[in-house]
Amino acid sequence: MQPATVQPAIHSEARVYHQHLSPELCQCTEPILAAMLPHVPEVWQKGAYGMELNGPATKARHADMAGGLGIELTLAETAVVSVEIHSSRPVGTARALCGCTLDEALRLLSTLFPVCGTAQTLAGLAAAETATGRIAAPAVHHARRSLVVSEMLTSQVWRFAVDWHALADLPVDLTVVKSVRDTLAGLAHDLFGEVDWRHPGGGETAGRIGQAIDRVNRAGRSLRRQILGPATASLDSVDAVELWAAQGETAAALLVREALAPPMRTVGTHGLPMLSKTDPQWFGAHLEGDPLFGVAPSVDGLPAETGPFATLHHPVLQEARHRWGDGLPARLLAAVLDALLLPGRLNGLLSEIPARPGVPSAALKSQGSGCGVADTIRGPVAHWLRLEDDRIIDYRTVAPTEWNFHPNGVFVHGLKRRTVADAHRAGQLLVAALNPCVPTTIRVRSGPIT
């Protein structure tokens, strides 16, 4: 067998983040940039991603700060005998914030972490508020969480209209992605008006809940059409799911149909634990106690799976796991069901905002540590920081990709020792199910029979 040409395993949101970075980066003072640049990957400084120095500020153009994954599968006949993951993800990026004030750091988070930038910012904001003792009012907390779920909804539209369309050999539909993004773009203004929601303590909410719910309903209809098609299919039982998969023409239906065929059905099964923890104290203790936790996280010494398959308690998913097992079809279905639930989840958060006014607490401390956790469609992202004299002296993060694509984790165990006719395709589908936030390529090569 000749080595296969390296192919993209899946499109990624990171691929379209080639844009001018936010003005906040260009407004940083020269000392902050001097502190940041040694910790930014060397390739960025050399200009491979369009960075250039211009006076007292660094202007970064066409930057892709998310890195990527390279996966190598070694076969003996049709059995996968080795799975290696090579990551270029800049997991130490957060160190660039050391020396910044909280306000400076919070403005920069969505620039340093452009994928899931709202969730990254909320996690950092929650960490900052815990460290200082300045806790936002309940209404502000709910409004912020609404912005994160809105980001998740937009990410899911991208996933089904772009990533999964490409995998199903259907035309990529960027029109619906733009439409949903434009629809939800005004949500922050509906909820906060002109107030900067990234400020510790929050301020007040604007209360345009009716407009916000209307935006969510329009976006939700677009997402539902991408998954289910023009028909009013209802995935209320495994029988209904199997009928939709057999007859549907959406990318989601086609991929679930493909995954249900043996031997694809067993790809992805493993004996590792599921990450059910979202407690900031748990994440904080591990990030603080182990500087490498963000690179290769574990639970009681074992890698774990994160994302909807690990956390979604849905009767149809449980029924599917009982009938199909814990392989690819169940994981793809978990992504589908989780996406379909998002509009209702977001409207639930929005409806609670007026009933939860409250008053934020004043800042109490200029030093201390704190951890914040926020949701993404791939699982929780956690940020931990330590303050001294109102400046950050340590900052650490862990993202879902480092869980599911751990060097000895879920993806590796989900493919290793599997016998499949097309290992490259099996890898593509498992990548789609676990959903890394970065461009991913897969190389298949032959190896000795052992």
Overview in brief:
With 450 residues, this protein is of the alpha+beta class. It contains 18 helices and nine strands. The chain has a domain of 191 residues.
Please describe what this structure looks like.
Helices cover 45% and strands 14% of the residues. It has 450 residues and is an alpha+beta fold. The chain has a domain at 136-270 and 305-360. The strands form 3 sheets. Strands 1-9-4-5 form a 4-stranded mixed beta sheet. Strand 7 (379-388) and strand 8 form a beta hairpin. The longest helix has 30 residues, at 138-167. The model is unreliable at 1-63 (pLDDT under 50).
Our measurement of the CA-to-CA distance between the termini, rounded to an integer number of angstroms, reads 16 Å
Percentage of residues in helical conformation: 40-55%
Decide which structural class fits the backbone. Answer: alpha+beta
The tally of beta strands, per DSSP, is 9
Notable traits:
alpha+beta; disordered N terminus; 450 residues; 9 strands; 4-stranded mixed β-sheet
Detail the topology: elements first, then pairings:
Elements: E1 7-10, H1 23-26, H2 30-36, H3 42-45, E2 51-54, E3 57-60, E4 69-76, E5 79-87, H4 102-112, H5 117-132, H6 138-167, H7 174-184, H8 187-192, H9 209-228, H10 238-247, H11 251-260, H12 280-289, H13 308-311, H14 315-324, H15 328-352, E6 368-376, E7 379-388, E8 391-398, H16 400-404, H17 410-415, H18 423-434, E9 440-446
